[in-house]
Amino acid sequence: MNKQEIVNRLLSLPAEIATAEEVVLQANATLVSAKELLQQKEDDLLLGNMIDGKNAEIRSAQMRLNTLNEREGLTDAEMELKNAVTRLGRSRDEFRALQAVTSLLKEDVA
Predict the structure, then answer these.
(1) Any coiled-coil ranges, and where (predicted)?
(2) Burial of 50 (0-12, 13-18, 19+ CB in 10 A)
């Protein structure tokens, strides 16, 4: 990467980081919604007497069986948030690395 490419990349990264931050916020909102949806489904099942096992293990199994879609949505939302945070971290790391390179290049000039 030559100096001009470093400059161009440094100039483009703040916008990319801002976009990545927005994606993280959206992924977090999706995760919160998925948790609320799962909780609502569990509440509906309990209040609707759909969970009627004789012991805690059976009731827990019934709950899992009846909330497969909601749990899958929650897992997907958790994974999307983790991926978004990772992408944001990589962009920030690249930005810091390029700033360090710029500092080194300044020292070479002096």
Answers:
(1) 24-71
(2) exposed
| pTM for the full predicted model | 0.85
Q: Which two tokens mark 57?
A: 């293990």
CA distances from 44 to 30, 38, 59, 106 (A): 21, 10, 14, 64
| Matching residue, tokens 């927005």 | 22
How many other β-carbons are positioned within 10 Å of the β-carbon of residue 18?
Answer: 12
The yes-or-no verdict on residue 43 having pLDDT over 60 is yes
Angle between helices 68-109 and 3-47 (to 10 degrees): 160
What is the total count of domains within the chain?
1
The tokens describing 79, both together, are 């994974």
Least confident range from 36-40, 86-90, 98-102: namely 98-102
Residue-wise pLDDT for 48-83, tens only, equals: 999 998 999 999 999 999 999 999 999 999 999 999
Phi and psi, residue 55, nearest 5°:
-140, 170
Q: How many CA atoms lie within 13 A of 57 on its CB side?
A: 0
